[in-house]
């Protein structure tokens, strides 16, 4: 019987990642001990907290990695829980030893593309677009997060079908994940369907905490689902994330496009870029293959032209997403159509927009804050 070496076990463990942090457990101080008896291996792993929602995944991934070693016999994986001191060390190793929380996405050199999904009117499909684009991007292998910035009208966790709560490691908030997307929402911090009744400064503080205290890891893309209109939250986002680009959602209706223009033109005051326009609820495909323009047509093009004129930059229509009952059902049951119906024309439209977003490159170097912080 062959002898398994400790270095072989450690090297196997270096391929096991903490699913929330996205780094190998060997780098996170999570391997408590390795014991080898001939070909039998025992590994003890530290969990960040006792109620770690990822416990089963971590244990089974660790077991699988060790079992992969040639000549290994039985493998036993047990767990222990980090002390407060270990959690503090972990936090320092992940975020540095700063007392003041920083917003990683606003730092020079951040490579995360940040898109704020906005509209003038309510109910045009901002949250639906956010959730479907996020899951489509995650399915392409990108690391994606959603910040539900609609404090009063939060809907992201429901649309992603998640009732998981975040947990805390030292002073970091670990965001729940669903369909490969990390998320944070005020829904995670209120009981049931309780309403949030806050004034502007509280809203600002909540968004700030979501950006700085949540451990997002290395995101390729962060999507912010904004409430409708040009209120406090839009200004907060512009102040905290001057590099965030706006994605304007409108229906094809002329009146909706007029209102959407106001949401887009806020970018002139905040010095933010408008990445493009998404026309949602465009012509519905009927069972006989004909189409029906329930909300008219041309709204997306109209607002893209107007915003191009206003901003002096090319604001494209990134895509038109049809009115589709399956998309509505996907949101209601928490299974986004971008995942559940990969071959539908609606998903194709969403994927095309996701491709456009994934390709764009932004540099925040030299961007200045266009708003005075009051
Ligand atoms: N393309 C579509 N086809 C069918 N239904 C849709 C489509 N887009 C959105 N909906 C439905 O329209 C309703 C409003 O969508 P959603 O909540 O995404 O809009 P919103 O702009 O985020 O609203 P709010 O302004 O209230 O935050 C939801 O019931 C959603 O399922
Ligand atoms: Mg919404």
Automatic annotation (TrEMBL):
Protein's GO biological process: iron-sulfur cluster assembly
Signal peptide: none
Membrane-spanning ranges: none
Superkingdom as given in the UniProt entry: Bacteria
Binding site for ATP: 120-127
Record domain MIP18 family-like: where: 7-77
Pfam families reported for this sequence: FeS_assembly_P, ParA
GO molecular function, one term: ATP-dependent FeS chaperone activity
Keyword list, A-Z: ATP-binding, Hydrolase, Iron, Iron-sulfur, Metal-binding, Nucleotide-binding
Complex formation: Homodimer.
PANTHER family given in the database record: IRON-SULFUR PROTEIN NUBPL
Record's function text: Binds and transfers iron-sulfur (Fe-S) clusters to target apoproteins. Can hydrolyze ATP.
Protein family: In the N-terminal section; belongs to the MIP18 family. In the C-terminal section; belongs to the Mrp/NBP35 ATP-binding proteins family.
Stated name of the protein: Iron-sulfur cluster carrier protein
Native organism: Corynebacterium gallinarum
């Amino acid at each position: 019987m062959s002898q398994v070496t400790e270095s072989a076990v450690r090297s196997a463990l270096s391929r096991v990642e903490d699913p929330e942090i996205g780094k190998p457990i060997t780098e996170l101080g999570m391997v408590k001990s390795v014991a080898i008896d001939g070909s039998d291996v025992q590994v003890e792993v530290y969990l960040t907290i006792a109620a770690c929602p990822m416990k089963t995944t971590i244990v089974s991934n660790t077991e699988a990695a060790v079992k992969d070693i040639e000549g290994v016999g039985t493998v036993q994986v047990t767990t222990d829980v980090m002390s407060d001191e270990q959690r503090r060390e972990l936090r320092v190793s992940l975020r540095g030893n700063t007392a003041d929380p920083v917003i990683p996405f606003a730092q020079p050199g951040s490579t995360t593309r940040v898109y704020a999904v906005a509209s003038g009117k309510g109910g045009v499909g901002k949250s639906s677009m956010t959730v479907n684009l996020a899951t489509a991007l995650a399915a392409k292998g990108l690391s994606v997060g959603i910040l539900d910035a609609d404090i009063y009208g939060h809907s992201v966790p429901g649309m992603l079908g998640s009732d998981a709560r975040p947990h805390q490691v030292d002073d970091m908030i670990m965001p729940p994940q669903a369909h490969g997307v990390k998320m944070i929402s005020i829904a995670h911090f209120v009981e049931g369907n309780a309403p949030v009744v806050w004034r502007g400064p509280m809203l600002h503080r909540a968004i700030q905490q979501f950006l700085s205290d949540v451990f997002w890891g290395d995101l390729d893309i962060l999507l912010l689902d904004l409430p409708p209109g040009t209120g406090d939250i839009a200004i907060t986002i512009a102040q905290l994330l001057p590099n965030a680009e706006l994605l304007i959602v409108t229906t094809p209706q002329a009146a909706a496009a007029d209102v959407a223009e106001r949401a887009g033109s806020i970018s002139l005051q905040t010095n933010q870029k408008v990445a493009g326009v998404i026309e949602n609820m465009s012509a519905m495909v009927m069972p006989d293959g004909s189409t029906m323009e329930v909300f008219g047509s041309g709204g997306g093009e109209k607002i893209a032209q107007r915003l191009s004129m206003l901003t002096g930059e090319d604001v494209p229509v990134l895509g038109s997403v049809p009115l589709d009952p399956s998309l509505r059902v996907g949101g209601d049951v928490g299974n986004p159509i971008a995942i559940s119906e990969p071959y539908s024309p609606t998903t194709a439209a969403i994927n095309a927009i996701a491709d456009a977003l994934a390709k764009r490159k932004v540099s925040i170097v030299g961007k200045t804050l266009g708003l005075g912080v009051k």
